[in-house]
Amino acid sequence: MSKYKLTQFYQSLYPNGKCEKFCKRIFKVYDTDGSGKIDFVEYMLSISITASNDMKQKLALAFKLFDKDNSGTIERQELVEVIQSIYDLTIHEKDFKRRIDVNEFVDEIMEKFDSDKNGHIETEEFLNGCIENPSLAELIIPY
User: Fold this and answer.
1) pLDDT tens-digit readout, 29-77
2) What is the number of helices (H) and of strands (E) in the chain?
3) What is the pTM assigned to this prediction?
4) CA distance 94 to 83
5) Count of CB atoms situated within 10 Å of the CB of 1
6) Rounded to whole angstroms, what are the CA distances from 43 to 26, 82, 84, 94?
7) How far apart, in Å, are the Cα atoms of 5 and each of 15, 37, 60?
């Protein structure tokens, strides 16, 4: 599947949303071999994880979504960019009016997830933060 096809798919799910930034990011996560295409194995793996009841697998995939530079940590700016892309995607959804400002939301996530207060979220902090704050996790994990 090409990035274009993935974008078309998300555009059909969110016809009034802006899906380009979100699709660009999710494409990089799903295209694990960096070939520029999501092949059948990559597609099936992504579907099996997102449809799974295994929360650890879902959270690991979500961590990759936010860790844009593949550093093994999530920086504040990475959170801002990905959450903004989710907001843009779902801008016309029924709950949009109740959303708080992206920066306020990121501040709340950093406060609750960055347990050692070093300015970034490591894998374990992300997993623990999502488990300890399921209502926040539900808002930031798009699958």
Assistant:
1) 999 999 999 999 998 988 888 777 878 888 888 899 999 999 999 999 9
2) 8, 2
3) 0.82
4) 17
5) 16
6) 12, 21, 25, 29
7) 14, 10, 25
